[in-house]
Structures
1.
Amino acid sequence: MRNTLKSRALALSVALFVIGAGAPLMRMLAAETPAVPRKKPPPENRDESKVPPIVLPDPLVLKSGQRVTDADTWSRKRRGEILESFRTQMFGRRPPGPAKLTYKVFDETRGALGGKATRKQVTVYFSADEQGPRMDLLLYVPANASQAVPAFLGLNFGGNQAINADPGIKISESWQRNRPELGYVRNRATEATRGNASRRWDVDTILARGYALVTAYYGDIDPDYHDGFRNGVHPLFYRAGQTQPAPDEWGTIAAWAWGLSRALDYLERDPAIDAKRVAVLGHSRLGKTALWAGAEDERFAIVISNNSGCGGAKISRRVFGESVHAINYDFPHWFCANFAQYNERVNDLPFDQHMLIALMAPRPVYVASAEKDLHADPRGEFLAALHAEPVYRLFGAPGLGVQEMPPLNEPKMGRIGYHIRTGVHDVTPYDWKCYLDFADLHFGRR
Ligand code: GCU
């Protein structure tokens, strides 16, 4: 598909050049995604003894070769260099947010969840067109809060109604992957989907500990399948005639992360929420998203990656679990087109994922793994957290306090947090307990 597009674009641009028909069109065609040969990746390695040694790029060396030895030089120079590399080579550049935020609060119910919460539902519009892409936010705020509360913000996989059986939650009207056993049919959510993911959203505990929970369906921002970027928010920002993002422009993960920033724009206007204390979190592909959201938007006070794996916290150079090649092959829409250039030369990446973690510095960041989640490479996730430490040290911030992976279910919490728990790829009450403890620690709540 991309191949054909590319050759057509080339032929057309040559023709236009010859007849002198307009530079704007030429620019537009040059921005088409280049062809990346789609070649099946080798099977993934899950044998630690077969992992070759790796050399990680040094976060503390400027492109000029000069060493970064102080926090100021990091913040003024090096952080921007790294962010720019991640933008152009991996996630893609995103547009700015809309100049004016338009939203409608369509539900505000006191005494929700048996009296424990105030439930709010808000539609955030991504453009002036109310029929265009928009996202429904669901907020639960502790009922007894006497002042603005800190919040956890994370996207969900199945629509807001899936996170709790609360009959007051609006059922998502957006595209869904069919999973009839869970109540998703004809690409829509039905009543049967209420609460199907409540196991992953420990709402009662979050509220009891004094935090609000804010969530939105990730598919409101961009449906999670490769349609050549015709649906979702991408087309809102195309230049005249543009039909897909340029090779260095945002893929779907960057779009989801951008949506999280728009959610934060709304939270800044909601007096119930302390928007300076919002922890952004996500699981798996949404864990990759939370990390990128925290890198792009420094308003997020804490960033939490749950089992984010390849493209998230996992070191890309480590030949274990999912590879860059495999992720680009299986999910061609997640990253920008440039990222596929590294499929078979991952050691040429100008960064590795420890540098993504370091982009959060000096803010608290938490990386969590699960013992049986080998596809996500728990050790690779730990190493990224560990090797972000030199940047935190510039700020005098404590790192993990360990050099080796901690034992199962023994969280380590400095300004960087990490745990590996027993069990599989999932979000569990144990994970939530650690995140709440971490937030309490850094928000001075204990
Ligand atoms: C796949 C993918 C992972 C991703 C996961 C998820 O397993 O390979 O990279 O994290 O889906 O989002 O659940």
2.
Amino acid sequence: MKTQEGYNYARRLYAEIGVDTEEAIKRLQDIKISVQCWQGDDVRGFLFKENQLSGGIQTTGNYPGRAETPDELREDLEFALSMIPGKHKVSLHAIYADTDEKIDLDQLEPRHFKKWVDWAKKNEIGLDFNPTCFSHKMSDSGFTISSADDDIRSFWIEHCKRSRKIAEYFGRELGQTCVTNFWFPDGYKDIPVDREAPRRRMLEALDEIFSEKIDEKYTMEAVESKVFGIGAESYTTGSNEFCLGYAVSRDKMVCLDAGHFHPTEVISDKISSVLLFTKKLLLHVSRPVRWDSDHVVILDDELNAIAQSLVRTGLLDRTYIGLDFFDASINRIAAWVIGTRNMQKALLRAFLEPSDKLKAIELDGDYTSRLALTEEYKSYPFGAVWDYFCEKSGVPVREEWLDKVKKSEKI
Ligand code: RNT
Ligand code: ZN
């Protein structure tokens, strides 16, 4: 193998600090990343092709090659996944239903996703799900399930109930739990008088949505908070306190999105608190640049810190890792490959740490060694282990994948 020599050297070096690289590779192999389908078409979906993206989220750029049909999107996903080591999941939004029927969100049924399920089976991919409570005329007021309007509220409650059935169907058919994430853009552009009423309505709506019990073997459900959105700068119904309180009191998960907090807050520090109070956790790994901009995830300090928080204390087993970025200014397949491989690289780096030894040093109060060693370990040859893992997994090594993407652009 062309990566063998570098790997042998790395293995020896890591062994000297008590780290088994084979073990690290084995652990990485088992981690499924939930790859967001919406990076492939700028969050447009197929149900309402004419609708604008709304709900305070935005894609910018018009790089050619956006998937326009479910078949194209699946083909692009397959191509991206062929350049990412391991077996993963794809996260779908309700607007990605694959059907010719003219139906609205409150009429969706599992059968409208049958082609996705068949595809997932064929490719041994898991599926996750998201109700789509934005980009729709019924969300034009800026409110969905926390709206004061009974018709609007009922419409979205029905959509969410149906989404749960679709998720259950995914879990049952594919034999792996479908993670369903509920995010609502609800909020006010300007300063509200009554901050409580929408939250009370959201609480009641969620209770109604979740009133039917669904086996957690099939679907695990999360609520995603947000600090603000474009057009909802002054107030967000589903704030962090709201979602955390809801999840803890109702035995649900929260979804921590890296872009949904004040700029100096980081989700890497929230993981260990949340998981003291909930069974499981969902992450939306993203890269906010000055705001919730959903840039492609890079191997930066926060990504490494997220991976360390998960790995050092064994919280990874209770965490679902989903990606949430959408960049329309670069090749969309490349965006998936870059972001997903970076998530894996960060996990690998964390697996390659002698975390027990570091924890013991910290307990001893030897903060000098803590800083010295964590800094020195940063320049250990994790890249050689990554390259070997890629080659072993039958995917392109280092930047080889870029050529494939570039060639595909020319066809
Ligand atoms: C929006 C949330 C949400 C969406 C996706 C498309 O700010 O992060 O998760 O990005 O559902
Ligand atoms: Zn998100």
